[in-house]
Structure formats: structure tokens, C-alpha cells
Amino acid sequence: MALAQPAPGQVQPLAPGTRAATRLQTLTLTPPIPEVKTVEVQSNGFVRAAHTILLLPTAQATDARATQLALLAAERTYRAAPDLLEVDVSVYRSGNYAGFGGPLPLLTLSVPRERLATLRNSIKNDQYDRIWINPQIEAPEPVGVVVEAPEKLPVFEGTPAEIKAYQLQKSLGQAGGGVRNGLLFQGNPARRQVALTFDDAPHPMYFPLVLDLLRRAGVKATFFVIGRNVQAYPYFAEDLIRGGHEIANHTFHHVRLPSLSSAQIKAELSSTNTLLTQLSGQKVQYFRPPGGRYTTRVLNVAKELGLTTVFWTDDPGDFQNPGVETVEARFDKHLKPGGIILLHDNAPDGLLALPDLLKVAKQRGYTVTTVGGLGR
């Protein structure tokens, strides 16, 4: 019997040819909770975080039951590993669970270690701000083709005349730096300054670890977030803003945009803008097309929505799990004044390489900033 195909945009698979990531450490809860599928743990070299996944059968899939089990799972995860920086819990329906990037969870819960002692009372009194309960109102339907590979070299698709005009824009943008006609290829090539950017955020296990590393280094970054991920983990977007980082648009479903109509492209971008503005109170300024694929229509829609389309100059390929040393070597090779660095918040090799990447940039005299900080 043929397996049902996932809806377009609902899965974010690894790129073809990607080396398998190192298997994550897992924890065993005592006493066990039957609904727990797995408890995965990741370190950033300083601290560890855990992501606990629970699967509920349809008959048990109520807000009350999901909350009860999420609370119990968080407590037992800390009991199994008291040193954790944070425990994040995702509760799904067992019948349609398809992993991160599939149908949204029923409930998500984030428990930093310092909030554990007051967790039960806060939830009981409806005063806990790091819980999301799915309203069961579907987000905009995914459209187009799912991105089957991470961002590579940016690829403009169009007629020969459009490509020629775009190449001229790109050459001028790279030579002088700065925003030109709604496009940012790089910052000022005369300034020893680079922008640090992360795509695909937020992931419930990796994101807190990335923020921890940036805090330790005193560095601010720009996060190109996926709308559906922010919808399920809104408190992470709030953490991002409170930390002084910059939030930007990476579409709602992480789909390739060139094959979509202008209306569909607008829906992907505007729905994400609306969500991010509601959470941050700030106007969204920057956009990056998933897969690095775009056309004149994509760029025009982004510009009409007041978005600057941001590309990159330094892609260490962390999403391909090439090894920490390879990520560091690629980063070092392409580091240049006005550069824009592309990393991902859910890539283990990028996470572990990040402290050394920031150290190398500092040793070579670079200031690391956000996209908006370039040129300041």
C-alpha cells in the first residue's frame, strides 16, 4: 500500500547528499510516561537543553490532558538531568505526527531551569507565559513546493533580459554595498564589519542554545524565522526581541516561491509579517527567500510589503553536517568586510562551531552585528 504523501510545505527534509547528523543523546524518564516518544538532549559546549516529545491518541487529545502531561514530562526530564539549561516540551496528536515541520503540536511548553520551582502554581493560576495551546484554527494552507535543500548560492530565475538586469543590480550592490532597490547583497566593503544571520528559527531545542552562545559572546544577530515555527513557539520570538536580536521573514511555510502566484507569495510573506509584528511590536524590515530561489515577482512582492530582500556572502554549509572543522574552515575562507554570514538555528555543527567562528571574527578585527547594524 502506498504511503500518503505529506502536504507541500509541511516537511523540512534534509538536503540530498547531506551527511547524517550525529545521533543526539536521549534521556530515560523515571518513572516512565507512556506518551513520551523521546527526550533528546543537545549541548552547545557550555550548557545543555532538552526537547521532550509526547504523542497523545485522539481520545486523550484535550488541552487539559496535554497540559497535565507536558508539566509532568518537564519535571521528570529535569529529574533525569538537573543540569539542563532549559526543557522544552511539544505535545502532538499521535495520529498525524510527522516530526518537526509536520502538523503543528497540540501544545508547547518551555521551562527554563529557574522557572521550574514555580511552574505548577503559575500554570494553575494561568500566569505562565511560556506555554502555547493550539487554538485548532488552521494557519494559511501551505502552497507551492517544499524546500528540498537548504540555502545554497542565491539563484535568480527569469528571462534573459531579467537575468541581465538583475546581474547588473547585483554587481552594483556587491561593489558598493548597502541596500539598493530593495536588495541587500552585502554591507559596506570598506568596513570591517559582518552581519550574523540564522535561518529557519525557532527550533525548540537548538534555539535556546544559540541564544545562550550569543549572550556569552555579547553578539546580536538577525534571525530569519519561519512563521509556522513562531506560531507554535511564540515565546522564543519574544526571547529573541528581549535579547536585542533582529527578527526577519523567511515565509510562513518555508516553501520555494518562484512557482507561486503573486497572491500566494504575498500570503506567505504578509502572514508572517503580521505574526511577527504582533509578537514584537516592531515592523518587519528584512526577508530571505527559502532555498535561495527567487524571481522578479518575488522581489517585487517583498518590496511592495516594505521588505528588503537579504542575501549572503558566507555560507559554511552547517545544515549539511560536514563536521565542525569544515564549517569553521569555510567560514574563515569567505569572511570579508561587509559580509553576511548564513547559519541555521537547527544545525548541530553550526551550533558547536559558533563560539570559534565568533572568536575568529574578533581576532581578525571584525565587528559582528545584525543586518540592520551593517553600516552603522
UniProtKB/TrEMBL annotation:
One of its GO terms (cellular component) is membrane. This is Polysaccharide deacetylase family protein. The keyword Oxidoreductase does not apply. One of its GO terms (molecular function) is hydrolase activity, acting on carbon-nitrogen (but not peptide) bonds. Keywords: Hydrolase, Metal-binding. PANTHER family: CHITIN DEACETYLASE 1-RELATED, GLYCOSYL TRANSFERASE-RELATED. One of its GO terms (biological process) is carbohydrate metabolic process. SUPFAM superfamilies: Glycoside hydrolase/deacetylase. It comes from the Bacteria. Residues 192-369 form the NodB homology domain. It comes from Deinococcus detaillensis.
